[in-house]
Specification:
Blueprint: H1 8-13, H2 18-39, H3 50-56, E1 61-62, H4 63-70, H5 74-86, E2 90-94, E3 102-106, H6 108-132, H7 134-150, H8 154-158
Antiparallel strand pairs: 1-3, 2-3
Helix pairs in contact: 2-6, 4-5, 6-7
Protein backbone atom coordinates (compact mmCIF):
# COMPACT_ATOMS: atom_id res chain seq x y z
CA UNK A 1 0.00 0.00 0.00
CA UNK A 2 1.29 3.44 -0.84
CA UNK A 3 2.58 5.59 1.96
CA UNK A 4 0.68 8.72 3.06
CA UNK A 5 2.08 11.88 1.51
CA UNK A 6 2.34 15.12 3.43
CA UNK A 7 2.42 18.76 2.44
CA UNK A 8 0.66 20.15 -0.61
CA UNK A 9 -0.76 16.78 -1.67
CA UNK A 10 -2.40 16.25 1.72
CA UNK A 11 -3.80 19.80 1.72
CA UNK A 12 -5.28 19.28 -1.75
CA UNK A 13 -7.30 16.38 -0.37
CA UNK A 14 -9.16 18.75 1.95
CA UNK A 15 -10.98 20.13 -1.09
CA UNK A 16 -12.52 16.77 -1.98
CA UNK A 17 -16.18 16.34 -1.19
CA UNK A 18 -17.55 13.02 0.12
CA UNK A 19 -18.49 11.63 -3.29
CA UNK A 20 -15.04 12.26 -4.77
CA UNK A 21 -13.17 11.14 -1.65
CA UNK A 22 -15.20 7.90 -1.54
CA UNK A 23 -14.72 7.34 -5.28
CA UNK A 24 -10.97 7.90 -5.24
CA UNK A 25 -10.49 5.88 -2.05
CA UNK A 26 -12.51 3.01 -3.53
CA UNK A 27 -10.53 3.13 -6.74
CA UNK A 28 -7.23 3.15 -4.83
CA UNK A 29 -8.30 0.18 -2.71
CA UNK A 30 -9.54 -1.72 -5.78
CA UNK A 31 -6.24 -1.06 -7.56
CA UNK A 32 -4.29 -2.38 -4.59
CA UNK A 33 -6.46 -5.52 -4.46
CA UNK A 34 -5.84 -6.01 -8.20
CA UNK A 35 -2.09 -5.62 -7.68
CA UNK A 36 -2.14 -8.23 -4.92
CA UNK A 37 -4.19 -10.81 -6.80
CA UNK A 38 -1.93 -10.33 -9.82
CA UNK A 39 1.02 -11.17 -7.55
CA UNK A 40 -0.77 -14.43 -6.67
CA UNK A 41 -0.93 -15.47 -10.31
CA UNK A 42 -4.16 -13.84 -11.45
CA UNK A 43 -2.73 -10.95 -13.50
CA UNK A 44 -5.36 -11.47 -16.20
CA UNK A 45 -8.24 -11.01 -13.74
CA UNK A 46 -9.73 -7.55 -14.17
CA UNK A 47 -11.86 -5.49 -11.82
CA UNK A 48 -14.82 -5.78 -14.21
CA UNK A 49 -14.73 -9.58 -14.01
CA UNK A 50 -16.02 -9.25 -10.47
CA UNK A 51 -19.37 -8.14 -11.86
CA UNK A 52 -19.74 -11.61 -13.38
CA UNK A 53 -18.12 -13.49 -10.49
CA UNK A 54 -20.56 -11.98 -7.98
CA UNK A 55 -23.39 -13.86 -9.68
CA UNK A 56 -21.76 -17.24 -10.25
CA UNK A 57 -20.05 -17.51 -6.87
CA UNK A 58 -23.27 -18.99 -5.48
CA UNK A 59 -23.35 -21.80 -8.02
CA UNK A 60 -23.95 -22.56 -11.68
CA UNK A 61 -26.56 -20.63 -13.62
CA UNK A 62 -27.74 -20.31 -17.21
CA UNK A 63 -26.44 -17.40 -19.30
CA UNK A 64 -29.96 -15.95 -19.48
CA UNK A 65 -30.13 -15.80 -15.69
CA UNK A 66 -26.71 -14.16 -15.61
CA UNK A 67 -27.87 -11.57 -18.15
CA UNK A 68 -30.96 -10.78 -16.06
CA UNK A 69 -28.93 -10.59 -12.84
CA UNK A 70 -26.44 -8.23 -14.48
CA UNK A 71 -29.23 -6.30 -16.24
CA UNK A 72 -27.50 -6.68 -19.61
CA UNK A 73 -28.38 -8.37 -22.89
CA UNK A 74 -27.86 -12.10 -23.23
CA UNK A 75 -25.30 -11.33 -25.95
CA UNK A 76 -23.27 -9.17 -23.56
CA UNK A 77 -23.43 -11.83 -20.83
CA UNK A 78 -22.34 -14.47 -23.37
CA UNK A 79 -19.40 -12.32 -24.44
CA UNK A 80 -18.28 -11.81 -20.82
CA UNK A 81 -18.68 -15.54 -20.18
CA UNK A 82 -16.65 -16.45 -23.27
CA UNK A 83 -13.82 -14.15 -22.17
CA UNK A 84 -13.74 -15.63 -18.67
CA UNK A 85 -13.98 -19.14 -20.07
CA UNK A 86 -10.98 -18.46 -22.35
CA UNK A 87 -9.02 -17.22 -19.32
CA UNK A 88 -9.90 -20.38 -17.40
CA UNK A 89 -12.13 -18.76 -14.76
CA UNK A 90 -15.49 -20.15 -15.93
CA UNK A 91 -16.73 -23.27 -17.68
CA UNK A 92 -19.96 -24.14 -19.45
CA UNK A 93 -21.72 -27.33 -18.48
CA UNK A 94 -25.00 -28.95 -19.47
CA UNK A 95 -28.00 -28.19 -17.31
CA UNK A 96 -29.02 -31.46 -15.58
CA UNK A 97 -32.72 -30.59 -15.95
CA UNK A 98 -32.73 -29.24 -19.53
CA UNK A 99 -30.15 -30.52 -22.00
CA UNK A 100 -30.82 -27.52 -24.27
CA UNK A 101 -29.42 -25.16 -21.64
CA UNK A 102 -25.78 -24.60 -20.72
CA UNK A 103 -24.91 -23.35 -17.27
CA UNK A 104 -21.81 -21.43 -16.35
CA UNK A 105 -19.83 -22.14 -13.23
CA UNK A 106 -16.55 -21.21 -11.65
CA UNK A 107 -13.51 -23.36 -12.32
CA UNK A 108 -10.89 -24.07 -9.70
CA UNK A 109 -8.96 -21.10 -11.11
CA UNK A 110 -12.06 -18.90 -10.80
CA UNK A 111 -12.52 -19.89 -7.17
CA UNK A 112 -8.81 -19.27 -6.62
CA UNK A 113 -9.12 -15.73 -7.98
CA UNK A 114 -12.10 -15.02 -5.73
CA UNK A 115 -10.22 -16.42 -2.72
CA UNK A 116 -7.16 -14.32 -3.60
CA UNK A 117 -9.33 -11.19 -3.80
CA UNK A 118 -10.93 -11.97 -0.45
CA UNK A 119 -7.51 -12.48 1.14
CA UNK A 120 -6.24 -9.25 -0.39
CA UNK A 121 -9.22 -7.24 0.89
CA UNK A 122 -8.88 -8.74 4.37
CA UNK A 123 -5.13 -8.02 4.48
CA UNK A 124 -5.67 -4.49 3.25
CA UNK A 125 -8.35 -3.92 5.89
CA UNK A 126 -5.98 -5.16 8.59
CA UNK A 127 -3.23 -2.85 7.36
CA UNK A 128 -5.58 0.13 7.37
CA UNK A 129 -6.72 -0.74 10.89
CA UNK A 130 -3.09 -0.96 12.03
CA UNK A 131 -2.18 2.38 10.45
CA UNK A 132 -5.34 4.41 10.95
CA UNK A 133 -6.84 2.68 13.97
CA UNK A 134 -9.68 0.16 14.08
CA UNK A 135 -12.20 2.72 15.37
CA UNK A 136 -11.56 5.12 12.48
CA UNK A 137 -11.81 2.34 9.91
CA UNK A 138 -15.03 1.05 11.49
CA UNK A 139 -16.46 4.60 11.52
CA UNK A 140 -15.57 5.06 7.84
CA UNK A 141 -17.19 1.73 6.95
CA UNK A 142 -20.34 2.65 8.86
CA UNK A 143 -20.50 6.08 7.22
CA UNK A 144 -20.20 4.55 3.77
CA UNK A 145 -22.88 1.96 4.58
CA UNK A 146 -25.13 4.83 5.72
CA UNK A 147 -24.45 6.63 2.42
CA UNK A 148 -25.44 3.47 0.54
CA UNK A 149 -28.70 3.34 2.51
CA UNK A 150 -29.40 7.05 2.02
CA UNK A 151 -28.85 6.82 -1.73
CA UNK A 152 -30.96 3.68 -2.04
CA UNK A 153 -28.00 1.68 -3.29
CA UNK A 154 -28.05 -0.76 -0.38
CA UNK A 155 -30.64 -2.98 -2.05
CA UNK A 156 -28.51 -3.34 -5.20
CA UNK A 157 -25.46 -4.16 -3.11
CA UNK A 158 -27.36 -6.75 -1.05
CA UNK A 159 -28.82 -8.33 -4.21
CA UNK A 160 -25.42 -8.32 -5.95
CA UNK A 161 -26.79 -6.10 -8.67
CA UNK A 162 -24.09 -3.45 -8.59
CA UNK A 163 -23.07 -2.16 -12.00
CA UNK A 164 -20.42 0.22 -13.20
CA UNK A 165 -21.93 3.62 -13.96
CA UNK A 166 -22.28 4.39 -17.60
Amino acid sequence: MNQVRHGDDADALKGLDLSLAALFAGLALAEEVQRRIAAEGFADARFGHGFVFQHVVGGPLPIGDLARAMDVTQQRASKATAELEALGYLRREPDPEDARLRRISLTERGRGAIDAARRARAALLGELQDRLGPDRVAAAEELLRDVLRETGTDAAVSARRVRLPG
